[in-house]
């Protein structure tokens, strides 16, 4: 049957419109998917940042507590040293006080000896003066009567000598007593000087004791302050632990939503006729060491430390379901590898690539094909490949399935 030109024109217009609508719907769907992914990534990023901020507070709070505990330990050690010094100083003070009492007793005894010598001297001096007065009376006329009473020449000659001897002896005894008194006075002065020195030592020791006691009080106040800091840190740690738990829940929720999205991306290709032989190949030609294993601290995958620029291989045939940038994974690729004989699905994710992936979403890849290169993008601290593996949409330890 021959189709008229008019009908052909109408059919062409319908096909054109249909293709336009199809393209528009396809473009719109892709745009919505990208928007949803960006939203989920943003939510997870925000949750991660909140958790990181809380964990940083916990770390800082713990550091403050440990610093307070260290300071408290130092103050307590210093307090023990000060207490020991105070004990020694107080022993010295007690000894000096005893020495002062002893010196006071010696001074008192020496003063008694001085007073006794002074009394002896006064007594001798009084007798001496009495005899001098008597001798003076003899010189004034009484001596003639005494001389006339002499019975012989010897008495007459020795009378004057006797008087002179008596006077000289009195003077000698008085000088001796005075010298003894002066010596005793000197001894008493020396004892008083020694006592004054002891009192000065006591005053100095008491000043040291007061200073040490003040230092002990300051240390006690410092210890009390550190105890308050430690108690506050404990209270803050408890509050932060609750905040961390809540933030972790939010992060887990955001991660689960992102995982659901990534799984949905895989589900788009679940009807593809892909059979996973489970004959996985290595993701890298070589690597230095495994820097982080699956499950450590909630780690989602296995990290292989390798030089930047090392080629990354697809571990099996598959379809690229995602190839873009993520704040944590950096540049990454996700591949769906199909189903095994029992109907289990397999997918892998390769993260922290140095630059944009070598493949794009929807592209078929073969085992051993280069999909990107090792880098340090996203939340990373050194060149490495972060490799994840999912079976039926659930994360598993990739190292148990993929040779390395």
UniProtKB/TrEMBL annotation:
Residues 1-33 form the signal peptide. Keywords: Coiled coil, Signal. This is Peptidoglycan DD-metalloendopeptidase family protein. It holds the Pfam family Peptidase_M23. It comes from the Bacteria. InterPro entries: Cell_wall_metabolism_enzyme, Dup_hybrid_motif, M23ase_b-sheet_dom. The keyword Transport does not apply. Residues 30-120, 174-264 form a coiled coil. It comes from Candidatus Gemmiger excrementavium. Residues 298-397 form the M23ase beta-sheet core domain. Gene3D superfamilies: 6.10.250.3150, Glucose Permease (Domain IIA) (2.70.70.10). One of its GO terms (molecular function) is metalloendopeptidase activity. The keyword Coiled coil applies.
């Amino acid at each position: 049957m021959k189709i008229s030109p008019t009908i052909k024109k109408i059919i062409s217009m319908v096909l054109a419109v249909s293709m336009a609508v199809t393209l528009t719907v396809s473009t719109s769907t892709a745009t919505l998917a990208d928007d949803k992914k960006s939203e989920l990534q943003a939510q997870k990023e925000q949750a991660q940042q909140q958790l990181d901020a809380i964990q940083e507070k916990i770390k800082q709070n713990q550091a403050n507590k440990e610093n307070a505990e260290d300071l408290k330990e130092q103050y307590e050690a210093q307090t023990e040293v000060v207490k020991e010094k105070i004990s020694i100083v107080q022993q010295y003070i007690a000894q000096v006080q005893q020495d002062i009492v002893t010196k006071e007793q010696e001074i008192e005894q020496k003063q008694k000896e001085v007073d006794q010598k002074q009394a002896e001297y006064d007594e001798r001096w009084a007798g001496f003066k009495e005899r001098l007065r008597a001798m003076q009376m003899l010189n004034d006329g009484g001596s003639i009567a005494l001389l006339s009473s002499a019975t012989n020449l010897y008495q007459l000659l020795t009378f004057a000598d006797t008087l002179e001897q008596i006077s000289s002896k009195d003077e000698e005894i008085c000088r001796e007593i005075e010298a003894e008194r002066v010596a005793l006075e000197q001894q008493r002065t020396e004892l008083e000087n020694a006592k004054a020195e002891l009192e000065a030592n006591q005053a100095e020791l008491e000043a040291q004791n007061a200073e040490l006691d003040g230092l002990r009080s300051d240390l006690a106040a410092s210890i009390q302050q550190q105890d308050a800091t430690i108690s506050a840190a404990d209270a803050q740690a408890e509050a932060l632990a609750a905040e961390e738990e809540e933030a972790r829940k939010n992060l887990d929720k955001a991660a689960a939503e992102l995982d659901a999205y990534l799984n949905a991306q895989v589900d788009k290709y679940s009807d593809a006729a892909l059979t996973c032989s489970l004959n996985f190949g290595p993701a890298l030609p070589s690597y230095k060491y495994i820097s982080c294993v699956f499950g450590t601290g909630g780690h989602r995958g296995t990290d292989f430390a390798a030089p930047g620029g090392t080629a990354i291989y697809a571990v099996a045939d598959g379809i690229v379901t995602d190839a873009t940038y993520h704040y944590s994974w950096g540049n990454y690729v996700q591949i769906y590898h199909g189903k095994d004989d029992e109907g289990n699905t397999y997918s892998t994710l390769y993260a922290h690539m140095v630059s944009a992936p070598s493949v794009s979403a929807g592209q078929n890849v073969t085992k051993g094909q280069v999909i990107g290169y090792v880098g340090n993008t996203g939340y990373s601290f050194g060149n490495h490949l972060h490799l994840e593996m999912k079976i039926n949409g659930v994360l598993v330890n990739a190292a148990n399935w993929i040779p390395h």
